[in-house]
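Sample 1 of the test manifest.
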Amino acid sequence: MMPLAFAHEGAVVKVLQVKAGRGLARRLRELGIFENQLLRVVKSRGPGPTIVEVLCGSVPQGRPSCVLTSCYYHRMGGRILLGFGISMKILVEEVGNQ
Amino acid sequence: MSNEGSRILSVAISTSLIIGIAYITSGLISLYNWSVMILAPEGMVKGILRKYIPGDLGMALILLSIGLTLLAAVYYKLRQSITKSFSCLTVGSTLAIITMSMQLLTVLASTIDSLIIGDTITVEGVQLGVLRIDSLLGYVAILLFIMSLRFYDKRFRAK
Amino acid sequence: MSVVSDIKLKRMKVALAGIPNVGKSLIFNQLTGGRAWVGNWPGVTVEKKVGKIRIGDNELEVVDLPGIYSLTAYSVDELIARNFIVEERPNVVVCILNAANFERSLYLAISLLELGANVVLDLNMIDIAENEGYEVDYVRLQSILKVPVVPTIATKGYGIDELKKAILSAMKERRTYVGIVDYGADVEREIRRLKSLLEELAPGLCRKYPSRWIAVKLLEGDEDILSKVSKLPHGSRMLEEVERSKRSLRRRVEDLESYITECRYRKALEIAQQVLKRIKTPEVTLTDLLDFVLTHKVLGMPIALSIMYLLFRFSFEVSAPLVDTIDIVMNHWLHDWLLSLPGLPESLKSFLADGILAGIGSVLVFLPVIAFFFLGFALLEDVGYMARIAFIVDKIFHSFHLPGKAAIPLVIGFGCNVPAVMAARTIEDENERKVAALIAPLSSCNARLPVYMVIAGAVLRAYAGAVILSLYALGILLALIVGWLFRKTIFKGPSTGFILELPPYLSPKLSNVVFKTWERTKRFLFKAGTVILLGVIVVWLLSVSGPGGYLGPKALEAPEVLERGWVGVIGHVLAWAFAPMKWDWRACAALFFGFIAKETVVGTMGILYGVGEERVTEAIMRSFTPLTGYAYMAFVLIYVPCLATIAMIRNELGLKYSLLALIYEVILAYFVALSIVGIGHLMGIR
Ligand SMILES: Nc1nc2c(ncn2[C@@H]2O[C@H](COP(=O)(O)OP(=O)(O)OP(=O)(O)O)[C@@H](O)[C@H]2O)c(=O)[nH]1
Ligand SMILES: [Mg+2]
């Protein structure tokens, strides 16, 4: 378990915990970032701000963004830039690498 | 990847290596010329090729950025990341072309300006402007840009 | 159509809602022929904008809103949009969906449907989605959501007519779908219970909003709705019931709020799965390619600085011929022509030539520089680079306890500080937002540029370019330091960081770039014709009169006479205060008038230094050394932005903070100018 700010570029991570206040947690949830969601770290200034894309379930006709454990994931919408402060508040675990 | 694609890329990458080094070198020279100009009082130290590579902090910065980007293209190619390499190639050559165009625009503007305020226009002045290092290297970068476009067609154009 | 229904339609309100950067403002412009600001980054619009639209014989009121992700606001601009939709209940809400960011758009659309809004869906940016390799089956979407869906490409004007028609028919036939999300049997049971209670205890509220929506919001813990309910006669009873529902659900659902948002989110995903179709597989998109380098660890920063440098070169050097043309026309031809006019009284001639023309002319000369800057800036904005800057600088800004998003106001501030202060609205954290607004004026705006160009051009000659750039850097550096100081003292608090969705890179639209350049340049021209003109007239009046009475136009020909005028008095008093900096009294007087707007500094100089001189530049050259000139420019950079900016800070943060901004800037300016002179002396520079 580590803060998202420390994740490697290109890693696929699973969100374990969002240690943020109510408003922030809610906003993140609305963007698709909450417990058990998968994110791909597109950019990281390890440790620093990150750019992530949210991966959503195996959607056959979606846009494949990466292949993980032989299951297609597609990326949801635009990429999200998370500032340093927020990247430290999202705890993740690395589950794959591209 | 098609054979032709990989051939274009390797040509582009070798060109990129050469131009990249040229950019870095001229960036460093410009930096040197600049510090000579700032630190040494009037004309004590000569500086290198000052006519073509004037000492200018901003120009040095741009030359170094372009050089670094082009060399990064080589680096990523060596690490087998084609997409990343291609990215650097495209952005680097685009930036080089923009810089070149800016220099040419400036030459054009200052020529018109001389006309307006009634200064004489010297052939040498225009020549120096058009052959300044950032425009000179920019001409070569056009080649690089064309190559990267062709590579894009071969490799990435959506099927 | 009958007259009666016509009148009814005229009063109707249409709101444009959507997530940030979907093209709301562009569609607003296309619908109304209006001129809302369009730019390719989230958070361009931070204020609502009203326009009229004619469809056939009907005139409707259309409102462009800031972007929102849901009906729960998280920053000031979002609150504006949320309040408009929830409180004013527009007759039709056009929810604009981004086909290239479909799930998040859908989440908002679902929230609006739950609210019972009369929704028309506009599926925008289908061209970008297609580029990225997929398409949205909008017919299917229409049948799932039970509201009309219109596909559009706003940049090409495609589908706008259909959208108008859809809006018109929505006016006549209201379609809603409140129960779109199923929250699962347990929660649904509680919703039903609360719903019937609400209908009984709060009938008024239920007339305004669907009772189901109120029930869901109460369970979610929406602060606004909670406070609304608590103010009702049976409010406390109602809240008790909500607590009871929550307690009974606690065994099944851990955190009700996150459960409810997640349900909505999953619904959006589920619908997206049904309507998104892949049509081709592009391996990389242009955005991927560019972003790899432009936000690169090593390359990102130098490239960002290079782009800034190119922007400055473009505005300074390429505009040179135009600058000189204006100079020749205004300050030579027009000036000489005015003086040679026969039959004009001497004092009027002096007023026109040495007062107005000298003052305004010295400012207007820089119009091309400013226009070129805005042109380059609009290009950067429309390409989509702005949002990336926030990423590139975030780490540096973080060490000053500021969010990277605060870079956006600072960059906008290079153009003008007034919109820069406003742009701070999108910063989520209250403290960070205030600090960002307070430091935004330190970013060196275009109004300061004429001052730099006049003084640096006259005094620093060959180094002028480097010196001007160093002032821009100084502004940013001071902004960071002051920001840090504020965060350590008045606005303490943890850094929450920020969230910003990155827009795709787009090729800039010429018409939009030209329009924005023109609008911003026009503002400068307008200022020259009003505030600066006024300032210049005041300067002239104060020059030709003094404590000893009217001095006459002689004052503007002989320096000794001028010194006896009011300007002389003001200048000498200030020169005394600025004694360590050794500035000329005329320069000090110019600072005084620069309070109104920075351009007046140059306008005043144009008048005062022109006295008894052939060329203003030479007079300036004699009165400054490179060191005092630099200190003067730094002072101009830092002290009081301009009245308009102070007014904007007051508007955003209140009187207290606008005074704070005023005071800290004057003190800081004095301190910095003093240090520059002091350090310069120590280093042996004159
Ligand atoms: N290619 C393409 N670009 C579009 C389309 N619609 C809008 N844009 C571009 O998207 C960018 C954002 O447009 P805006 O109208 O400023 O978006 P907005 O929703 O008002 O954004 P905010 O005010 O920041 O919330 C601009 O650069 C537009 O040119 C479209 O259909 N296709
Ligand atoms: Mg907008």
